[in-house]
Amino acid sequence: MPAIPRITYREDQETLDLSAEEKAIDDKRVDEELEVLGTIGFKNAKEPYLRYPDAIGKIDQMCKDLC
Length: 67
What we know:
Layout: H1 20-36, H2 52-66
């Protein structure tokens, strides 16, 4: 399955393609986006990687425990 192409964050242009300026900072942006995902992010160095279904199960169990 091919990777989904990255798109621009700029809302003042018609194209979705990354500008040269954005391409230079996109790798850092990808890391920041994955960091927000916590343990379901692939490159999160602070916590062990969890597969998405496992992470959802963990969240579900935590909610049940709190109730």
